[in-house]
């Protein structure tokens, strides 16, 4: 077995069960994610992909099962600790609606740094560098409503990564984009996370988007396969 096979996974879900009202979205789903690995979660509409991502990101608490991040059991964590993890260790990128509409693109990207205690000048400088990296520095003073869908997603990606998270959770990040904008967002995402060693859990129904991942996990009837490392 190679070192990679035996390396402890960073994030592990074991036997997750989660119902929304009478609907059982997860029925014993397990999944392991290594540091720096990109895993695509695919499956039919309603198969539980978003629910699995929300449980792994500490946004939703499962009814049963465990989620372990770097040895820490998330289901035992307080709300305060979960929000700290989401602010410092996890980044999120959703399909749309995540940028604050009243703020410029630059201030949106600076926001997580300001919330983390950075000074305004430093936060804006770092935010500008991230916008530059994703080719939208020129749009920094525009508000989200004035950006194209692809520009807004690249600004949202900058905001998700500006704090240097260990894990990026991306739920249909290109779901609202045409194929060119989708390719630009995915190329920027894949290149940057490889460089920074950020692990990615990528929910998508698009095979071309899933192809950017190192590995694909399919959800069927609330169960994931193959579950991967450490499960
Ligand atoms: N907040 C909620 N209230 C009630 N039912 C919900 C809620 N969230 C999800 N569900 C149901 O749970 C099941 C799984 O939903 P989930 O969004 O996790 O699936 P998905 O695979 O991400 O779907 P899609 O690809 O359509 O986004 C679905 O049957 C859905 O209708």
Automatic annotation (TrEMBL):
Domain ABC transporter, chain residue ranges per copy: 11-231
Superkingdom of the organism of origin: Bacteria
GO molecular function, one term: ATP binding
Keywords on record: ATP-binding, Nucleotide-binding
One matching Pfam family: ABC_tran
Keyword Nucleotide-binding included in the entry's annotation: yes
InterPro entries from the UniProt entry: AAA+_ATPase, ABC_transporter-like_ATP-bd, ABC_transporter-like_CS, ABC_transpr_LolD-like, P-loop_NTPase
PANTHER family to which the protein is assigned, alphabetical: ABC TRANSPORTER RELATED (PTHR24220:SF685), IMPORT ATP-BINDING PROTEIN (PTHR24220)
Protein name as catalogued: ABC transporter ATP-binding protein
């Amino acid at each position: 077995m190679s070192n990679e096979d035996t390396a402890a996974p960073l994030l592990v879900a074991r036997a997750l069960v989660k119902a929304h009202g009478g609907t059982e979205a997860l029925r014993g789903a397990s999944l392991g994610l290594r540091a720096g690995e990109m895993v695509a979660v695919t499956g039919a509409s309603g198969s539980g992909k978003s629910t699995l991502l929300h449980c792994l990101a500490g946004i939703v608490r499962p009814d049963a099962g465990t989620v372990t991040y770097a040895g820490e059991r998330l289901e035992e964590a307080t709300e305060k600790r979960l929000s700290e993890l989401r602010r410092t260790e996890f980044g999120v990128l959703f399909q749309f609606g995540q940028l604050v509409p009243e703020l410029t693109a630059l201030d949106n990207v600076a926001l997580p740094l300001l919330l983390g205690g950075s000074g305004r000048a430093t936060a804006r400088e770092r935010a500008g560098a991230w916008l530059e990296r994703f080719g939208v520095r020129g749009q920094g003073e525009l508000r989200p409503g004035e950006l194209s869908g692809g520009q807004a997603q690249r600004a949202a990606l900058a905001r998700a990564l500006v704090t240097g998270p260990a894990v990026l959770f991306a739920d249909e990040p290109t779901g609202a984009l045409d194929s060119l904008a989708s390719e630009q967002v995915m190329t920027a995402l894949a290149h940057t996370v490889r460089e920074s060693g950020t692990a990615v859990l990528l929910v998508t129904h698009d095979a071309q988007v899933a192809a950017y991942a190192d590995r694909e996990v399919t959800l069927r009837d609330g169960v994931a396969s193959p579950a991967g490392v450490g499960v």
